[in-house]
Amino acid sequence: MTPQKLITQFSTNSIMQKFSVFVLDKQQQISPRTFAEEFGKIQKIYLKDKQRDLFCAEADAFAGRLVQTENHDFAGIIMSALCKLTEWMPEKLESFALKGYEIARANGDPVHMMARLNNLRKIYQGDYNRLYDYVQVLYKQEKCLKELTNHYDTLVNSFRSVTRTLAPKTDYENMLAYVQTEIGKLTRKKHPNDAQAKLLNAREIFEKRGNTQSVGYIDMLLSKIQNNI
Fold it and tell me: Which residues of 202-229 are buried (b: 16+ CB within 10 A; e: fewer)?
């Protein structure tokens, strides 16, 4: 039985449960693209019936069972969908983004790690009480972006995703420069040497791109470090 046939025979109340049983039993025979398409159809059914919270809870539990079977591809597809669905619900989004990050990390997937870190960054940014969490996300983004830029050619050949493709290498280099600038700005007083090293690397990237505005901003931050301001 294919997933397509499965959709039509389930009632709304049991569709996720039965779909999950089917997938867990037949997952080796289902491609990530087919899974994503069928999962998307199920999501539409729940949302049409105004059962968003039920969908999120059942999908989250389903993803957990997939992780237990080490099917990080399918689990990652679910978490990506849940993060999009809860974009304006910070508490739920944080929970799904944290799980999605760990799933992507276990899958060796820096692109989806970045996507989930971007979710978390938007939650923490501007919240003084979450400044520590925000800085930790920046450090993780820096690590991901270094992986993407240093091993870009290898990742191009190995990367697989239903909806995403790798951006040009220059885009990731620019992202790295902006992240390092932000880290340098926030840590220059507590960790001046490390902040200076990051800012100098970011400056080099921006200078190559002709981004004079960002170069000027970094020069200002470097001057503050040198003068202990």
Answer: bbebbeeeebeebbebbeebbeebeeee
Convert the pLDDT of each residue in 107-164 to its tens digit: 999 999 999 999 999 999 999 999 999 999 999 999 999 999 999 998 888 776 766 6
**Number of Cα atoms under 13 Å in the Cβ half of residue 78:** 25
Report which residue type is found at 118. Answer: N
Q: Following DSSP, what letter does each residue of 14-48 receive, concatenated?
A: THHHHHHHHHHHHGGGS-HHHHHHHHHHHHHHHHH
Using alpha carbons only, give the angle 118, 114, 24 rounded to the nearest 5 degrees.
105
Q: How far apart are CA 203 and CA 178, in angstroms?
A: 10
Q: Could you give the angle at the alpha carbon of 43 between the alpha carbons of 39 and 44, nearest 5°?
A: 120
Q: What is the mean pLDDT of residues 186-194?
A: 97
Query: 110: which 2 tokens?
Result: 């820096």
pTM: 0.90
Q: What letter represents residue 75's amino acid?
A: A
